Amino acid sequence: MSPVIPIHADIGCAQAPVLVERGQREVFCGLTGIIWLHRKMQDAFFLVVGSRTCAHLIQSAAGVMIFAEPRFATAILDERDLAGLADAHDELDRVVQRLLQRRPDIRLLFLVGSCPSEVIKLDLSRAAARLSHRFMPQVRVLNYSGSGIETTFTQGEDACLAALVPVLPASTQQHEPELLIVGTLADVVEEQLGRLFKAMGVDRFAFFPPRGSDALPAVGPQTRFLLAQPFLGNTAHALESRGAMRVASPFPLGAEGSAAWLHAAGGALGLRAETVEQAIAPARRRAEQALAAHRTLLAGKRVFFFPDSQLEVPLARFLARELGMLLTEVGSPYLHRQHLAEELAWLPAGTRLSEGQDVERQLDRCRAAAPDMVVCGLGLANPLEAEGVTTKWSIELVFTPIQGFEQAGDLAGLFSRPLTRRKLLAA
């Protein structure tokens, strides 16, 4: 049985200086989050109020939907709307009415702001309140911003979940704490984690967001919430304002991270460490065995992270500690030191950390470091590949189920395959 590794094994990069850059950025906007959110919340619909460019972006990111009608669309702002020649609120009301007549299965409708709607100061919060009053109780209408003016693409999920928190029912639980897992996870990952929680003896737990709007979890002072994603700062703040308490933990990536995450949950609920370890030991062993083959290929390889998703710090910790990779730079759009405290403590001391981006300067540092692999967005991947650099698309790490023990080998494979491909092409 693997030993229980304390979260604060050393201080790592907990007090490390961070290079802060505020220059040109290469990121997708928050509208991209709709792609995984609409698959998760199965009676929700995401109506983007934006331009044709917004519509093309979402459709391109989602791929071609042949066998199922997607649960997202774009209410396109045309020249008349942008010039103020038409009442955008009246137009939006008509679009929503037609949508709900056509799709009676919708129970939760999100009006999603974009760069164009924000530029013309379209008040979608007022529109959502008006439409919700009109269509309740059949349909609840909420709004959030997916604009890319100041945000990166994963913050779309954060904004969406933060908008949902105020409508969560109040918990009636007075004594025993209950667990809330926060962050969009693939259904298969939820089921695997649910089985582990039950094996640990945890009966009162829920996932947020739920699969349906009729299963919104209750929240209150007895709620202990565990973040499954590192980019949910606003959602965490909203939950804390409802009285819930965050459970400090690394994120559930790899065998070590998943074990620490589950131990943190057990500790918050008063479970003994031995009870938790006994419940998770078989899955943890499988994860460690799955990682062994990938470690042979990846150990000693140098990796450079461009800022994109806010997953960079947990991923860097996983690659360094569990696969033996060397970190040349770990960049992230935003470093939430409180939520990443346990991850930073586990990074190798001396790791170069950067927050934000000045893309030209970071490209210079990347070329000087000559890493074996670069993790970056799509906008940088092809140019770097043309220079002979092996890359991994950071967006793939968001779209792919990577959390938990059973996905540890798959996560490692996302990094080993590009190196294997490069080797085969060079042969």
Please provide a written account of the structure.
The chain has 427 residues and is of the alpha/beta class. It is 44% helix and 16% strand. The chain has 17 helices and 14 strands. The chain has helices at 34-40, 52-62, 79-82, 88-102, 115-119, 124-135, 155-164, 187-200, 233-241, 254-268, 273-298, 312-323, 341-346, 359-369, 378-386, 396-399, 408-426, and strands at 18-22, 44-50, 72-76, 108-113, 140-145, 178-182, 205-208, 223-227, 245-246, 302-305, 326-332, 353-357, 373-376, 391-393. The strands form 3 sheets. It has a 6-stranded parallel β-sheet, with helices on both faces. Strands 3-2-4-5 form a 4-stranded parallel β-sheet. Helix 8 packs across helix 11 (273-298). The longest helix is centred in the C-terminal third of the chain and has 26 residues, at 273-298. Residues 1-9 have low confidence and may be disordered.
Give the SSE layout.
Layout: E1 18-22, H1 34-40, E2 44-50, H2 52-62, E3 72-76, H3 79-82, H4 88-102, E4 108-113, H5 115-119, H6 124-135, E5 140-145, H7 155-164, E6 178-182, H8 187-200, E7 205-208, E8 223-227, H9 233-241, E9 245-246, H10 254-268, H11 273-298, E10 302-305, H12 312-323, E11 326-332, H13 341-346, E12 353-357, H14 359-369, E13 373-376, H15 378-386, E14 391-393, H16 396-399, H17 408-426
Parallel strand pairs: 1-12, 2-3, 2-4, 4-5, 6-7, 6-8, 8-9, 10-11, 10-13, 11-12, 13-14
Helix pairs in contact: 7-9, 8-11, 10-11, 11-17
